[in-house]
Design a protein that fits this description.
By secondary structure, the chain is mostly helical. It folds into two domains: 8-66; 77-172, no CATH class. It has helices at 8-19, 31-54, 61-66, 77-81, 84-94, 124-130, 132-137, 153-172. Helix 5 (84-94) crosses helix 8 (153-172).
Length: 175
């Protein structure tokens, strides 16, 4: 490293190099290339941790299916082309954080759909695509799996607007 060994930057870099097993004694490095190398190692570390944890977590199941299309540190195309509210709706559905009884089991007494009152579990897929009560008042998603695809931004935009309307309808309904 070309920095003074006693500088705060050098101390932080030394810790990171040790954490990511980077040997800086083999060749002298300047600040920018070393920062880039550490950044690349941290991205690889994030991917490894996601892969390891995703085998144990149900909310990460869809990320496993899409892992070849997702790169940490690279913004998804829909995030550049859709509004904040639309992006938030897509992210909530993709990460299983939409307020449904199966996603938030500690918040509700039972898992039956609060909209159609049938013995159907209130899942994201049920609410967005299958619920008869919602179908009467609001347009539903034609294909739930399309929400998890990146290819067609216009369809994703339509889906996001439908998700927003359905979410408002569901959250207004008492348990």
């Amino acid at each position: 490293m070309t920095e003074k060994p006693n500088s705060l930057w050098a101390e932080e870099i030394a810790k990171l190099c040790e954490e990511y097993e980077i040997d800086t004694t083999e060749f002298p490095m300047k600040k920018e290339p070393l920062n880039q190398l550490i950044n690349n190692k941290s991205i690889i570390n994030i991917i490894d941790k996601m892969n390891e944890e995703s085998t144990q977590k149900s909310k990460k199941e869809h990320w496993i299916k899409r892992k070849d299309n997702i790169k940490p540190g690279v913004r998804q195309e829909y995030m550049c082309r859709l509004g904040r509210k639309q992006c938030g709706a897509i992210i909530r559905v993709r990460s299983s954080m939409m307020v449904t009884k199966t996603n938030m089991p500690g918040k509700f007494n039972n898992r039956n759909c609060r909209m159609c009152k049938r013995d159907m579990e209130e899942t994201q897929e049920h609410i967005l695509q299958h619920c008869e009560d919602i179908r009467k008042t609001t347009q539903q998603i034609q294909n739930y799996e399309d929400i998890f695809k990146e290819e067609d931004i216009e369809n994703l935009k339509k889906a996001a607007n439908i998700i927003i309307k359905i979410t408002e309808t569901v959250e207004d309904r008492p348990q």
